[in-house]
Amino acid sequence: MTNTLQTPGVIRSNPNSNPFCGPAALSVILRRDVDDCLILIKKEVGDQPIQGLFYPCLLKILKEQGYSYKRVRTFDYTDGNLYLIVFYHHFGVLSNLGETNQPTQYFDNSHPNGTSLLPRMKIEVTFEIKKGN
Q: Would residue 3 count as lying in a domain?
């Protein structure tokens, strides 16, 4: 399967957007506003304040939006892929697209434009994300 994802978007938000990591991770992968991603989350969990999510909920939303995923060993990353990193109590997205002059970038709600450094937190599980089934 060929990954048709291009460089992920930055986290698109405004000052009133939900500040938490789940909507931010979806924003990067789906290339949609945080507010749009929050609507997708609330369709799954109901109309309640979103301050945390279980990762299966995020994976279900990605699948409903036409993405596939597979669990991979942490740090077993290959060029040309996008990864959902599930830390204990946090989500981030790693872009390891292997493009010329484009270093690996990590995105989360604290790094909306990306950074080259992963946070120093214990990783629970990692999923490779691809557009399509």
A: no
In sequence order, the 6+-apart residues with CB closer than 8 A to the CB of 86 are 55, 123, 124, 125, 126, 127
Domain coverage including residue 81: 21-131
Which residue shows structure tokens 């991979």?
A: 72
Number of domains composing the chain: 1
pLDDT tens-digit readout, 36-47: 988 899 898 887
Q: Residue 92 falls within a domain, yes or no?
A: yes
Sequence-separated (6 or more) residues with CB below 8 Å from residue 2 = none
Q: Which amino acid is it at 97?
A: L
Helix axis angle for 34-45 and 55-64, nearest 10°, is 110
Helix (H, G, I), strand (E, B) or coil at 29: helix
pLDDT tens sequence across 79-112 = 678 899 999 889 999 886 555 445 678 888 888 8
pTM, to two decimals = 0.81
CATH number at residue 94: 3.90.70
